[in-house]
Write a structure and sequence with these properties.
This protein is α/β, with parallel strands linked by helices. The chain is 37% helix and 27% strand. It has a five-stranded mixed beta sheet, with helices on both faces. Helix 3 links the parallel strand 3 and strand 4. The longest helix is centred in the middle third of the chain and has 13 residues.
Length: 131
């Protein structure tokens, strides 16, 4: 599956029935982006599964297309499953992806699958951007 296909498999969330995208309790919304130390930083927040990963996938695809080094700040991720993990691996194949500040759920999935040995995982955005 390509990074573009990963984006297409996620569906737009309307979990609370209000019609407002991004207001559902599991929707992580559109990630913030900024530059730091020559890398583009994408900030992930909330819970990521098959239904909520699409906005993050879109942001990472755009970042990978324009920057040779991308830092994903995962310090505010509360849940991550195989859809999130798949996105990390696909992004890693297209750019120099680094993770910053992994929470317990993120660290757990990285360690259980061995992906922590493939990706550059650091405590802070600054460390990830400069390593």
């Amino acid at each position: 599956m390509s990074l573009g296909e990963a984006v297409m498999t996620g569906r737009e969330s309307d979990l609370d029935g209000s019609g407002d995208r991004g207001t559902g309790p599991r929707d992580a919304g559109t990630p913030e982006r900024y530059e730091a130390h020559g890398a583009l930083v994408v900030v992930a927040r909330g819970s990521y599964d098959m239904q909520t990963v699409a906005p993050l996938a879109t942001a990472l695809r755009a970042a990978a297309g324009h920057h040779p080094r991308v830092v994903l700040d995962v310090s505010a991720v509360t849940f991550a499953d195989s859809a999130f993990l798949n996105l990390l691996i696909l992004t890693h194949r297209t750019t120099d992806l680094r993770l910053a500040g992994p929470t317990t759920p993120v660290r757990r999935i990285l360690e259980l699958t061995g992906v922590d040995t493939v990706l550059k995982v650091r405590r802070t955005v600054e460390e990830a951007a400069t390593c």
